[in-house]
Amino acid sequence: MTTIIAYREVSMRKLTLTAAAMATTALITVSPALANDDHKIVDDPLELTIHLHHVRSTAYDEDWPVEKVAREMTNIHLKNATVGSNSTNSAEAMNLLLATGKLPDIIGSARIKESVDQYGPQGAYVPLNDLIEEHAPHIKAFFDERPELMAAASSSDGNLYYIPYLPDGKYGRAFFIRYDWLDKLGLEVPNNVEELHAVLTAFKTQDPNGNGMADEVPYFARQWEELPRLVTLWGGRSSGSDTYHDFYVDEGKIKYPYMGEGYREGVKNLAQWYEEGLIDAEVFTRGSSAREYLLSENLGGMTHDWFASTSGYNDTLAEPIPGFEFKAFAPPENVNGDRIEEHRRIPVKPDGWAIGGTNKHPVETIKYFDFYFSPEGRRLVNFGVEGQTYNMVDGKPQFTEEFLTNGRPVNSQLYEIGAQLQARGYFQDYEYEKQWSNKYALEGIALYDEGDYLIDQFLGVAMNADEQKVFDKYFASARTYMLEKQQAWILGSSDVEAEWDDYMSQLDRMGMNEVLEVMQSAYDRQYGG
Ligand code: CA
Protein backbone atom coordinates (compact mmCIF):
# COMPACT_ATOMS: atom_id res chain seq x y z
CA MET A 1 0.00 0.00 0.00
CA THR A 2 2.72 2.46 1.02
CA THR A 3 4.59 1.92 -2.23
CA ILE A 4 1.54 2.63 -4.32
CA ILE A 5 0.78 5.81 -2.43
CA ALA A 6 4.38 7.01 -2.68
CA TYR A 7 4.41 6.30 -6.40
CA ARG A 8 1.14 8.12 -6.79
CA GLU A 9 2.53 11.18 -5.02
CA VAL A 10 5.50 11.29 -7.36
CA SER A 11 3.22 10.83 -10.35
CA MET A 12 0.90 13.55 -9.21
CA ARG A 13 3.78 15.96 -8.72
CA LYS A 14 4.76 15.30 -12.30
CA LEU A 15 1.17 15.86 -13.38
CA THR A 16 1.07 19.14 -11.50
CA LEU A 17 4.13 20.45 -13.32
CA THR A 18 2.78 19.46 -16.71
CA ALA A 19 -0.55 21.06 -15.88
CA ALA A 20 1.12 24.30 -14.89
CA ALA A 21 3.13 24.32 -18.12
CA MET A 22 -0.04 23.71 -20.10
CA ALA A 23 -2.10 26.39 -18.45
CA THR A 24 -0.83 29.26 -20.62
CA THR A 25 -1.16 27.54 -23.99
CA ALA A 26 -4.39 25.74 -23.21
CA LEU A 27 -6.67 28.74 -23.10
CA ILE A 28 -5.60 30.06 -26.51
CA THR A 29 -7.75 27.53 -28.36
CA VAL A 30 -11.07 29.29 -28.62
CA SER A 31 -13.80 28.24 -31.00
CA PRO A 32 -16.75 30.39 -32.12
CA ALA A 33 -19.57 31.00 -29.66
CA LEU A 34 -22.20 28.30 -29.54
CA ALA A 35 -25.50 29.28 -31.06
CA ASN A 36 -28.60 27.88 -29.39
CA ASP A 37 -29.79 25.87 -32.34
CA ASP A 38 -26.42 24.50 -33.32
CA HIS A 39 -24.56 22.05 -31.10
CA LYS A 40 -21.53 21.70 -33.34
CA ILE A 41 -18.53 22.59 -31.20
CA VAL A 42 -15.75 22.20 -33.79
CA ASP A 43 -15.83 22.24 -37.60
CA ASP A 44 -13.52 19.24 -37.96
CA PRO A 45 -14.05 16.21 -35.70
CA LEU A 46 -12.00 16.48 -32.52
CA GLU A 47 -10.89 13.40 -30.58
CA LEU A 48 -10.66 13.52 -26.80
CA THR A 49 -9.64 10.64 -24.55
CA ILE A 50 -11.87 9.57 -21.65
CA HIS A 51 -11.65 7.44 -18.52
CA LEU A 52 -15.22 6.49 -17.62
CA HIS A 53 -15.77 4.23 -14.65
CA HIS A 54 -18.88 3.39 -12.68
CA VAL A 55 -20.18 0.13 -11.30
CA ARG A 56 -22.73 0.07 -14.13
CA SER A 57 -20.29 0.95 -16.91
CA THR A 58 -16.64 0.18 -16.26
CA ALA A 59 -15.47 1.57 -19.61
CA TYR A 60 -16.54 4.06 -22.24
CA ASP A 61 -18.17 2.50 -25.30
CA GLU A 62 -18.02 4.43 -28.58
CA ASP A 63 -20.87 2.33 -29.93
CA TRP A 64 -23.43 3.39 -27.36
CA PRO A 65 -26.32 4.81 -29.41
CA VAL A 66 -26.37 7.87 -27.16
CA GLU A 67 -22.69 8.54 -27.86
CA LYS A 68 -23.17 8.20 -31.60
CA VAL A 69 -25.84 10.88 -31.54
CA ALA A 70 -23.76 13.14 -29.28
CA ARG A 71 -20.79 12.74 -31.63
CA GLU A 72 -22.89 13.62 -34.64
CA MET A 73 -24.34 16.68 -32.99
CA THR A 74 -21.15 18.07 -31.41
CA ASN A 75 -18.34 16.76 -33.65
CA ILE A 76 -16.49 15.76 -30.46
CA HIS A 77 -15.34 12.15 -30.69
CA LEU A 78 -14.49 10.48 -27.38
CA LYS A 79 -11.96 7.65 -27.35
CA ASN A 80 -11.98 5.12 -24.54
CA ALA A 81 -8.92 5.37 -22.27
CA THR A 82 -10.40 3.82 -19.13
CA VAL A 83 -8.00 2.18 -16.70
CA GLY A 84 -9.15 -0.61 -14.36
CA SER A 85 -12.13 -1.79 -16.40
CA ASN A 86 -11.80 -5.35 -15.14
CA SER A 87 -13.00 -4.22 -11.70
CA THR A 88 -16.33 -2.63 -10.75
CA ASN A 89 -14.59 -0.67 -7.99
CA SER A 90 -14.26 2.91 -9.25
CA ALA A 91 -11.93 3.99 -6.44
CA GLU A 92 -9.50 1.19 -7.35
CA ALA A 93 -9.71 2.15 -11.02
CA MET A 94 -9.03 5.77 -10.09
CA ASN A 95 -5.94 4.77 -8.11
CA LEU A 96 -4.68 2.77 -11.07
CA LEU A 97 -5.32 5.70 -13.38
CA LEU A 98 -3.49 8.14 -11.10
CA ALA A 99 -0.59 5.70 -10.85
CA THR A 100 -0.06 5.90 -14.62
CA GLY A 101 0.98 9.52 -14.09
CA LYS A 102 -1.05 10.84 -17.01
CA LEU A 103 -4.71 11.72 -16.97
CA PRO A 104 -6.81 11.54 -20.14
CA ASP A 105 -8.67 14.60 -21.43
CA ILE A 106 -11.86 13.68 -19.57
CA ILE A 107 -12.17 11.71 -16.34
CA GLY A 108 -15.63 10.46 -15.41
CA SER A 109 -16.04 8.36 -12.29
CA ALA A 110 -18.17 7.40 -9.33
CA ARG A 111 -16.95 9.45 -6.33
CA ILE A 112 -14.70 11.60 -8.48
CA LYS A 113 -15.12 14.37 -5.92
CA GLU A 114 -12.62 12.68 -3.59
CA SER A 115 -9.98 12.72 -6.32
CA VAL A 116 -10.61 16.29 -7.48
CA ASP A 117 -10.75 17.59 -3.88
CA GLN A 118 -7.34 16.09 -3.25
CA TYR A 119 -5.57 16.70 -6.57
CA GLY A 120 -7.53 19.58 -8.13
CA PRO A 121 -5.89 22.26 -5.97
CA GLN A 122 -2.51 20.71 -6.92
CA GLY A 123 -3.21 21.21 -10.62
CA ALA A 124 -4.07 17.70 -11.76
CA TYR A 125 -7.54 18.85 -12.86
CA VAL A 126 -8.58 22.03 -14.66
CA PRO A 127 -10.64 24.48 -12.55
CA LEU A 128 -13.96 24.97 -14.31
CA ASN A 129 -15.30 28.23 -12.90
CA ASP A 130 -14.06 30.59 -15.63
CA LEU A 131 -14.64 28.07 -18.39
CA ILE A 132 -18.29 27.74 -17.31
CA GLU A 133 -18.70 31.49 -17.03
CA GLU A 134 -17.38 32.06 -20.57
CA HIS A 135 -18.26 28.96 -22.55
CA ALA A 136 -21.00 26.91 -20.87
CA PRO A 137 -24.28 28.90 -20.87
CA HIS A 138 -26.47 25.94 -19.92
CA ILE A 139 -24.32 24.80 -17.00
CA LYS A 140 -24.02 28.43 -15.90
CA ALA A 141 -27.79 28.84 -15.98
CA PHE A 142 -28.19 25.72 -13.85
CA PHE A 143 -25.73 26.85 -11.18
CA ASP A 144 -27.02 30.44 -11.24
CA GLU A 145 -30.32 28.98 -10.14
CA ARG A 146 -28.81 26.51 -7.64
CA PRO A 147 -25.68 28.23 -6.25
CA GLU A 148 -25.78 25.99 -3.16
CA LEU A 149 -25.09 22.99 -5.39
CA MET A 150 -22.09 24.74 -6.95
CA ALA A 151 -20.80 25.43 -3.42
CA ALA A 152 -21.37 21.81 -2.42
CA ALA A 153 -19.44 20.46 -5.39
CA SER A 154 -16.51 22.89 -5.02
CA SER A 155 -13.16 22.02 -3.45
CA SER A 156 -11.44 23.60 -0.45
CA ASP A 157 -9.72 26.27 -2.62
CA GLY A 158 -13.16 27.45 -3.78
CA ASN A 159 -12.78 26.08 -7.32
CA LEU A 160 -15.12 23.67 -9.03
CA TYR A 161 -13.18 20.76 -10.56
CA TYR A 162 -15.96 18.46 -11.75
CA ILE A 163 -19.42 18.62 -13.30
CA PRO A 164 -21.59 16.48 -11.04
CA TYR A 165 -24.33 14.01 -11.72
CA LEU A 166 -27.38 15.90 -10.43
CA PRO A 167 -30.30 13.61 -9.51
CA ASP A 168 -33.80 14.96 -10.06
CA GLY A 169 -36.89 14.27 -8.01
CA LYS A 170 -36.98 14.74 -4.27
CA TYR A 171 -38.44 11.54 -2.95
CA GLY A 172 -36.60 8.35 -2.12
CA ARG A 173 -37.87 6.33 0.85
CA ALA A 174 -41.15 6.35 2.71
CA PHE A 175 -42.95 4.50 5.50
CA PHE A 176 -44.92 1.55 4.13
CA ILE A 177 -47.53 -0.51 5.97
CA ARG A 178 -49.95 -3.36 5.23
CA TYR A 179 -53.23 -1.47 4.72
CA ASP A 180 -55.11 -4.76 4.31
CA TRP A 181 -53.86 -5.89 7.75
CA LEU A 182 -55.04 -2.61 9.29
CA ASP A 183 -58.47 -3.14 7.71
CA LYS A 184 -58.63 -6.70 8.89
CA LEU A 185 -57.88 -5.71 12.50
CA GLY A 186 -60.17 -2.65 12.37
CA LEU A 187 -57.29 -0.23 12.81
CA GLU A 188 -56.57 3.17 11.32
CA VAL A 189 -53.30 4.25 9.70
CA PRO A 190 -51.11 5.23 12.70
CA ASN A 191 -50.80 8.98 13.13
CA ASN A 192 -48.25 9.24 15.91
CA VAL A 193 -45.69 7.18 17.84
CA GLU A 194 -48.22 5.82 20.33
CA GLU A 195 -50.60 4.71 17.60
CA LEU A 196 -47.73 3.16 15.68
CA HIS A 197 -46.73 1.20 18.78
CA ALA A 198 -50.33 0.00 19.18
CA VAL A 199 -50.58 -1.04 15.51
CA LEU A 200 -47.29 -2.95 15.55
CA THR A 201 -48.37 -4.68 18.76
CA ALA A 202 -51.65 -5.69 17.10
CA PHE A 203 -49.73 -7.02 14.09
CA LYS A 204 -47.68 -9.11 16.49
CA THR A 205 -50.52 -10.42 18.65
CA GLN A 206 -53.71 -10.53 16.53
CA ASP A 207 -52.69 -12.77 13.65
CA PRO A 208 -53.45 -10.49 10.69
CA ASN A 209 -52.12 -13.09 8.20
CA GLY A 210 -54.67 -15.51 9.62
CA ASN A 211 -52.56 -18.65 9.91
CA GLY A 212 -53.12 -19.09 13.63
CA MET A 213 -49.50 -18.38 14.52
CA ALA A 214 -47.84 -15.29 15.96
CA ASP A 215 -45.33 -15.37 13.11
CA GLU A 216 -45.78 -11.79 11.88
CA VAL A 217 -42.71 -9.53 11.75
CA PRO A 218 -44.17 -6.07 12.47
CA TYR A 219 -41.20 -3.87 11.45
CA PHE A 220 -38.53 -5.10 9.08
CA ALA A 221 -35.87 -3.52 6.87
CA ARG A 222 -33.63 -4.59 3.99
CA GLN A 223 -30.93 -2.29 5.35
CA TRP A 224 -30.51 -2.52 9.12
CA GLU A 225 -29.71 1.19 9.13
CA GLU A 226 -33.43 1.75 8.57
CA LEU A 227 -33.97 0.65 12.17
CA PRO A 228 -31.96 3.43 13.88
CA ARG A 229 -33.65 5.72 11.31
CA LEU A 230 -36.75 5.34 13.52
CA VAL A 231 -35.13 7.53 16.22
CA THR A 232 -36.66 10.41 14.23
CA LEU A 233 -39.91 9.39 15.96
CA TRP A 234 -38.37 10.59 19.24
CA GLY A 235 -36.79 13.73 17.82
CA GLY A 236 -33.42 12.12 17.06
CA ARG A 237 -31.50 11.85 13.80
CA SER A 238 -29.72 8.98 12.10
CA SER A 239 -28.15 10.79 9.15
CA GLY A 240 -28.02 14.17 7.45
CA SER A 241 -27.93 12.92 3.86
CA ASP A 242 -28.70 9.98 1.58
CA THR A 243 -25.58 8.28 3.01
CA TYR A 244 -26.12 6.38 6.26
CA HIS A 245 -24.53 7.72 9.48
CA ASP A 246 -23.69 11.07 7.89
CA PHE A 247 -23.27 14.35 9.75
CA TYR A 248 -26.16 16.79 9.74
CA VAL A 249 -26.57 20.55 10.01
CA ASP A 250 -28.67 22.13 12.72
CA GLU A 251 -29.02 25.90 12.36
CA GLY A 252 -25.56 26.30 10.84
CA LYS A 253 -23.89 23.91 13.28
CA ILE A 254 -22.44 20.56 12.19
CA LYS A 255 -23.60 17.78 14.46
CA TYR A 256 -23.26 14.04 14.56
CA PRO A 257 -26.58 12.20 14.86
CA TYR A 258 -25.42 9.58 17.35
CA MET A 259 -24.48 12.16 19.98
CA GLY A 260 -27.85 13.83 20.59
CA GLU A 261 -30.55 13.60 23.24
CA GLY A 262 -33.29 12.63 20.76
CA TYR A 263 -31.08 9.79 19.59
CA ARG A 264 -30.60 8.57 23.14
CA GLU A 265 -34.35 8.66 23.78
CA GLY A 266 -35.03 6.93 20.47
CA VAL A 267 -32.56 4.13 21.08
CA LYS A 268 -34.04 3.56 24.54
CA ASN A 269 -37.51 3.13 23.00
CA LEU A 270 -36.32 1.02 20.08
CA ALA A 271 -34.69 -1.35 22.58
CA GLN A 272 -38.09 -1.62 24.26
CA TRP A 273 -39.84 -2.30 20.92
CA TYR A 274 -37.22 -4.88 20.07
CA GLU A 275 -37.79 -6.63 23.38
CA GLU A 276 -41.54 -6.64 22.72
CA GLY A 277 -40.99 -8.41 19.40
CA LEU A 278 -42.19 -5.47 17.28
CA ILE A 279 -38.93 -5.37 15.32
CA ASP A 280 -37.53 -8.18 13.20
CA ALA A 281 -35.35 -10.22 15.58
CA GLU A 282 -32.93 -10.69 12.66
CA VAL A 283 -32.94 -7.04 11.57
CA PHE A 284 -29.16 -6.69 11.83
CA THR A 285 -28.40 -9.86 9.87
CA ARG A 286 -31.26 -10.63 7.49
CA GLY A 287 -29.92 -8.37 4.77
CA SER A 288 -31.10 -7.33 1.35
CA SER A 289 -33.59 -10.17 0.80
CA ALA A 290 -35.64 -9.16 3.87
CA ARG A 291 -38.30 -7.26 1.91
CA GLU A 292 -38.73 -9.85 -0.81
CA TYR A 293 -38.89 -12.72 1.69
CA LEU A 294 -41.07 -11.20 4.42
CA LEU A 295 -43.58 -9.70 1.98
CA SER A 296 -43.94 -12.72 -0.28
CA GLU A 297 -44.28 -15.02 2.78
CA ASN A 298 -47.05 -12.73 4.05
CA LEU A 299 -45.12 -12.00 7.26
CA GLY A 300 -43.87 -8.41 7.13
CA GLY A 301 -46.02 -5.52 8.37
CA MET A 302 -44.10 -2.28 7.97
CA THR A 303 -40.86 -0.94 6.57
CA HIS A 304 -39.10 2.21 5.41
CA ASP A 305 -37.97 1.79 1.81
CA TRP A 306 -37.96 3.23 -1.72
CA PHE A 307 -41.23 4.38 -3.26
CA ALA A 308 -40.95 2.79 -6.70
CA SER A 309 -39.52 -0.64 -5.91
CA THR A 310 -41.59 -1.17 -2.73
CA SER A 311 -44.82 -0.14 -4.46
CA GLY A 312 -44.03 -2.72 -7.12
CA TYR A 313 -44.98 -5.54 -4.70
CA ASN A 314 -48.63 -4.47 -5.02
CA ASP A 315 -48.43 -5.70 -8.61
CA THR A 316 -46.38 -8.84 -8.09
CA LEU A 317 -48.11 -10.08 -4.90
CA ALA A 318 -51.72 -9.21 -5.80
CA GLU A 319 -52.35 -12.72 -7.03
CA PRO A 320 -50.50 -14.92 -4.49
CA ILE A 321 -51.77 -12.89 -1.48
CA PRO A 322 -55.41 -11.88 -2.11
CA GLY A 323 -56.11 -8.35 -0.85
CA PHE A 324 -52.40 -7.55 -0.44
CA GLU A 325 -51.95 -3.78 -0.03
CA PHE A 326 -48.56 -2.44 1.02
CA LYS A 327 -48.75 1.30 0.62
CA ALA A 328 -46.99 4.42 1.80
CA PHE A 329 -48.29 6.27 4.83
CA ALA A 330 -47.30 9.68 6.19
CA PRO A 331 -44.45 9.78 8.72
CA PRO A 332 -46.13 9.42 12.14
CA GLU A 333 -46.01 12.52 14.31
CA ASN A 334 -42.98 12.29 16.60
CA VAL A 335 -42.87 13.08 20.33
CA ASN A 336 -42.24 16.75 19.52
CA GLY A 337 -45.28 16.92 17.25
CA ASP A 338 -43.19 16.92 14.02
CA ARG A 339 -43.61 14.65 11.03
CA ILE A 340 -40.22 14.01 9.47
CA GLU A 341 -39.08 12.05 6.46
CA GLU A 342 -35.32 11.99 6.96
CA HIS A 343 -34.43 10.36 3.64
CA ARG A 344 -34.57 12.12 0.31
CA ARG A 345 -32.60 12.09 -2.90
CA ILE A 346 -29.49 14.15 -2.67
CA PRO A 347 -29.52 16.92 -5.31
CA VAL A 348 -25.79 16.66 -6.09
CA LYS A 349 -23.67 13.52 -6.18
CA PRO A 350 -19.91 13.09 -5.72
CA ASP A 351 -20.02 11.35 -9.14
CA GLY A 352 -19.48 13.12 -12.44
CA TRP A 353 -16.73 14.14 -14.84
CA ALA A 354 -13.72 16.45 -14.87
CA ILE A 355 -11.09 17.82 -17.27
CA GLY A 356 -7.60 16.41 -16.95
CA GLY A 357 -4.86 18.99 -16.25
CA THR A 358 -3.05 18.23 -19.52
CA ASN A 359 -6.12 18.47 -21.75
CA LYS A 360 -5.18 20.73 -24.69
CA HIS A 361 -8.81 21.56 -25.49
CA PRO A 362 -10.43 22.70 -22.23
CA VAL A 363 -12.77 25.11 -24.05
CA GLU A 364 -14.08 22.47 -26.43
CA THR A 365 -14.35 20.05 -23.53
CA ILE A 366 -16.44 22.37 -21.35
CA LYS A 367 -18.65 23.04 -24.37
CA TYR A 368 -19.06 19.30 -24.73
CA PHE A 369 -19.99 19.07 -21.04
CA ASP A 370 -22.42 21.95 -21.62
CA PHE A 371 -24.11 20.09 -24.47
CA TYR A 372 -25.55 17.62 -21.95
CA PHE A 373 -27.20 20.52 -20.09
CA SER A 374 -28.87 21.87 -23.27
CA PRO A 375 -32.49 20.75 -23.81
CA GLU A 376 -31.49 18.36 -26.62
CA GLY A 377 -28.47 16.94 -24.82
CA ARG A 378 -30.39 16.55 -21.57
CA ARG A 379 -33.14 14.70 -23.39
CA LEU A 380 -30.59 12.43 -25.05
CA VAL A 381 -28.86 11.54 -21.79
CA ASN A 382 -32.13 10.97 -19.92
CA PHE A 383 -34.37 9.28 -22.49
CA GLY A 384 -31.98 7.82 -25.07
CA VAL A 385 -32.41 8.16 -28.81
CA GLU A 386 -35.54 9.62 -30.36
CA GLY A 387 -37.41 7.11 -32.49
CA GLN A 388 -35.71 4.21 -30.70
CA THR A 389 -36.52 4.48 -26.99
CA TYR A 390 -38.88 7.45 -27.07
CA ASN A 391 -40.95 9.71 -29.29
CA MET A 392 -41.93 13.32 -28.88
CA VAL A 393 -45.58 13.60 -27.84
CA ASP A 394 -47.03 17.09 -27.43
CA GLY A 395 -43.51 18.48 -27.30
CA LYS A 396 -42.38 16.10 -24.55
CA PRO A 397 -40.36 12.88 -24.65
CA GLN A 398 -42.46 9.79 -24.04
CA PHE A 399 -40.94 6.30 -23.83
CA THR A 400 -42.42 3.98 -26.45
CA GLU A 401 -44.95 1.44 -25.25
CA GLU A 402 -42.68 -1.35 -26.39
CA PHE A 403 -39.73 0.02 -24.41
CA LEU A 404 -41.84 0.28 -21.23
CA THR A 405 -43.51 -3.11 -21.49
CA ASN A 406 -40.83 -5.47 -22.80
CA GLY A 407 -40.38 -6.88 -19.31
CA ARG A 408 -36.88 -5.50 -18.70
CA PRO A 409 -36.15 -2.76 -16.14
CA VAL A 410 -36.23 0.60 -17.88
CA ASN A 411 -33.14 1.93 -16.13
CA SER A 412 -31.02 -1.12 -17.06
CA GLN A 413 -32.03 -0.75 -20.69
CA LEU A 414 -31.01 2.90 -20.60
CA TYR A 415 -27.59 2.13 -19.06
CA GLU A 416 -26.97 -0.30 -21.92
CA ILE A 417 -27.36 2.39 -24.58
CA GLY A 418 -25.25 4.96 -22.72
CA ALA A 419 -28.08 6.97 -21.13
CA GLN A 420 -28.37 7.77 -17.41
CA LEU A 421 -24.68 7.09 -16.79
CA GLN A 422 -23.71 8.50 -13.43
CA ALA A 423 -20.04 8.91 -14.25
CA ARG A 424 -21.10 11.66 -16.63
CA GLY A 425 -22.02 15.10 -15.38
CA TYR A 426 -25.68 15.70 -16.19
CA PHE A 427 -28.97 16.89 -14.76
CA GLN A 428 -31.41 14.04 -14.45
CA ASP A 429 -35.03 14.56 -15.50
CA TYR A 430 -37.39 12.93 -13.02
CA GLU A 431 -39.99 12.61 -15.76
CA TYR A 432 -37.97 9.67 -17.09
CA GLU A 433 -38.65 7.71 -13.89
CA LYS A 434 -42.22 8.87 -13.49
CA GLN A 435 -43.12 7.16 -16.73
CA TRP A 436 -42.39 3.74 -15.23
CA SER A 437 -43.49 4.25 -11.58
CA ASN A 438 -46.73 2.40 -10.76
CA LYS A 439 -49.82 4.16 -9.45
CA TYR A 440 -49.11 3.21 -5.80
CA ALA A 441 -45.72 4.89 -5.98
CA LEU A 442 -47.20 8.01 -7.57
CA GLU A 443 -49.99 8.13 -4.96
CA GLY A 444 -47.42 7.77 -2.18
CA ILE A 445 -45.25 10.51 -3.59
CA ALA A 446 -48.29 12.79 -3.88
CA LEU A 447 -49.07 12.09 -0.21
CA TYR A 448 -45.53 13.04 0.87
CA ASP A 449 -45.54 16.05 -1.39
CA GLU A 450 -48.76 17.34 0.09
CA GLY A 451 -47.44 16.95 3.65
CA ASP A 452 -44.02 18.49 2.91
CA TYR A 453 -42.20 16.12 5.28
CA LEU A 454 -38.70 16.33 3.81
CA ILE A 455 -35.95 18.14 5.66
CA ASP A 456 -32.81 19.86 4.33
CA GLN A 457 -29.84 17.72 3.53
CA PHE A 458 -26.19 18.09 4.41
CA LEU A 459 -24.43 18.28 1.06
CA GLY A 460 -20.95 17.51 2.34
CA VAL A 461 -17.79 19.59 2.75
CA ALA A 462 -14.40 19.75 1.05
CA MET A 463 -11.76 19.64 3.79
CA ASN A 464 -8.31 21.13 3.37
CA ALA A 465 -5.26 18.95 4.03
CA ASP A 466 -5.01 19.82 7.75
CA GLU A 467 -8.68 19.20 8.40
CA GLN A 468 -8.57 15.95 6.48
CA LYS A 469 -5.69 14.76 8.65
CA VAL A 470 -7.69 15.26 11.85
CA PHE A 471 -10.76 13.65 10.33
CA ASP A 472 -8.83 10.61 9.10
CA LYS A 473 -7.11 10.20 12.45
CA TYR A 474 -10.27 9.95 14.55
CA PHE A 475 -13.52 9.48 12.72
CA ALA A 476 -13.47 5.87 11.52
CA SER A 477 -12.75 4.34 14.93
CA ALA A 478 -15.19 6.67 16.72
CA ARG A 479 -17.92 5.70 14.27
CA THR A 480 -17.21 2.01 14.74
CA TYR A 481 -17.52 2.48 18.50
CA MET A 482 -20.85 4.33 18.11
CA LEU A 483 -22.30 1.65 15.83
CA GLU A 484 -21.22 -1.14 18.19
CA LYS A 485 -22.88 0.63 21.10
CA GLN A 486 -25.99 1.32 19.06
CA GLN A 487 -26.47 -2.34 18.26
CA ALA A 488 -25.74 -3.49 21.82
CA TRP A 489 -28.27 -1.02 23.22
CA ILE A 490 -31.04 -1.94 20.78
CA LEU A 491 -30.48 -5.67 21.22
CA GLY A 492 -30.60 -5.15 24.98
CA SER A 493 -27.13 -6.45 25.82
CA SER A 494 -26.40 -3.14 27.54
CA ASP A 495 -28.41 -0.13 28.67
CA VAL A 496 -28.25 3.23 26.89
CA GLU A 497 -29.43 5.25 29.90
CA ALA A 498 -26.87 3.71 32.22
CA GLU A 499 -24.00 4.11 29.76
CA TRP A 500 -24.73 7.44 28.08
CA ASP A 501 -22.40 9.68 30.11
CA ASP A 502 -19.50 7.28 29.76
CA TYR A 503 -20.26 6.95 26.06
CA MET A 504 -20.07 10.71 25.54
CA SER A 505 -16.80 10.96 27.52
CA GLN A 506 -15.36 8.10 25.52
CA LEU A 507 -16.29 9.88 22.25
CA ASP A 508 -14.52 12.99 23.50
CA ARG A 509 -11.40 10.93 24.25
CA MET A 510 -11.68 9.35 20.80
CA GLY A 511 -11.47 12.79 19.17
CA MET A 512 -15.07 13.23 18.02
CA ASN A 513 -15.18 16.83 19.20
CA GLU A 514 -12.07 17.60 17.14
CA VAL A 515 -13.70 15.92 14.16
CA LEU A 516 -16.75 18.14 14.62
CA GLU A 517 -14.48 21.20 14.81
CA VAL A 518 -12.73 20.50 11.49
CA MET A 519 -16.05 19.64 9.85
CA GLN A 520 -17.38 22.97 11.13
CA SER A 521 -14.43 24.99 9.82
CA ALA A 522 -14.71 23.32 6.42
CA TYR A 523 -18.46 23.92 6.44
CA ASP A 524 -18.11 27.59 7.38
CA ARG A 525 -15.55 28.16 4.65
CA GLN A 526 -17.65 26.44 2.02
CA TYR A 527 -21.10 27.72 2.86
CA GLY A 528 -20.09 31.07 4.33
CA GLY A 529 -21.28 30.15 7.87
CA1 CA B 1 -49.91 -15.23 11.92
Topology at a glance:
Blueprint: H1 2-26, E1 46-53, H2 65-74, E2 76-80, H3 90-99, E3 106-109, H4 112-119, H5 129-135, H6 137-145, H7 147-153, E4 163-164, E5 173-178, H8 179-185, H9 193-205, E6 217-219, E7 248-250, E8 253-255, H10 261-275, H11 290-296, E9 300-306, H12 307-311, H13 313-316, E10 326-329, E11 352-355, H14 362-371, H15 375-383, E12 390-393, E13 396-399, H16 401-405, H17 410-416, H18 431-434, H19 439-451, H20 465-491, H21 496-509, H22 512-527
Parallel strand pairs: 1-2, 1-3, 6-9
Antiparallel strand pairs: 3-11, 4-11, 5-9, 5-10, 7-8, 12-13
Helix pairs in contact: 6-7, 10-20, 20-22
The protein binds calcium ion.
Description:
- This protein has 22 helices and 13 strands.
- It has a domain at 32-169 and 350-429: D-Maltodextrin-Binding Protein, domain 2, CATH 3.40.190.10.
- The protein has helices spanning 2-26, 65-74, 90-99, 112-119, 129-135, 137-145, 147-153, 179-185, 193-205, 261-275, 290-296, 307-311, 313-316, 362-371, 375-383, 401-405, 410-416, 431-434, 439-451, 465-491, 496-509, 512-527, and strands spanning 46-53, 76-80, 106-109, 163-164, 173-178, 217-219, 248-250, 253-255, 300-306, 326-329, 352-355, 390-393, 396-399.
- The chain starts with a helix and ends with a helix.
- By secondary structure, the chain is α/β, with parallel strands linked by helices.
- A hairpin with a 2-residue loop joins strand 7 and strand 8.
- The strands form 4 sheets. A 5-stranded mixed β-sheet has the order 2-1-3-11-4, sandwiched between helices. Strands 6-9-5-10 form a 4-stranded mixed β-sheet.
- Bound molecules: calcium ion.
- The site of calcium ion (CA) has 6 residues, from loops.
